[in-house]
Write a structure and sequence with these properties.
The chain is mainly α. It has one domain. It is 77% helix and 0% strand. It contains five helices and no strands. The radius of gyration is 18 Å and the shape is elongated.
């Protein structure tokens, strides 16, 4: 390995951004799946306004809980490929998820629902936690 290759192995910034975007996409897919299953499988025959209210509630709950879990899981997955600055990489995963989440909400809802005040710091904490836990493990798994 040459010295020019070493930084690329240690830092995975683009991958961190990709994992953050993937975490948010997974959250969106989960929200859609839960809403569709509710409407077409579990509870049929409600009014459109009842489904809309359910969809909004599911979006908030799954957005907070699922977004946090997906951010943590994907940041943790990234740590297999990172040998330095694990916490910073975890934060980048979280920030990418937050940027997509906030941008999508502004584009789709023309604003931010109140749940974002909870979801955003939780995603950042999830990224930090994944990075912190990676600093405490053996570096022998780097590059696998």
């Amino acid at each position: 390995m040459t010295s020019a290759e070493a930084p690329a192995r240690g830092d995975r910034w683009f991958r961190a951004i990709g994992y953050g975007l993937l975490a948010e996409i997974a959250t969106i897919i989960t929200i859609i799946l839960v809403a569709k299953l509710y409407r077409y499988v579990f509870v049929r025959g409600l009014t459109d306004s009842a489904y809309a209210a359910f969809d909004q509630r599911v979006g908030e709950i799954v957005g907070i809980v699922g977004g946090t879990l997906y951010t943590f899981l994907l940041a943790q997955r990234l740590m297999r490929h990172v040998s330095t600055r694990q916490i910073a990489h975890g934060v980048v995963v979280a920030l990418a998820a937050v940027v997509l989440s906030v941008g999508g909400s502004i584009a789709g809802h023309q604003g931010l629902p109140g749940g974002y005040l909870i979801a955003t710091p939780l995603k950042i904490l999830a990224g930090v936690l994944a990075g912190f836990l990676a600093t405490r493990t053996a570096p022998s798994r780097i590059g696998s």
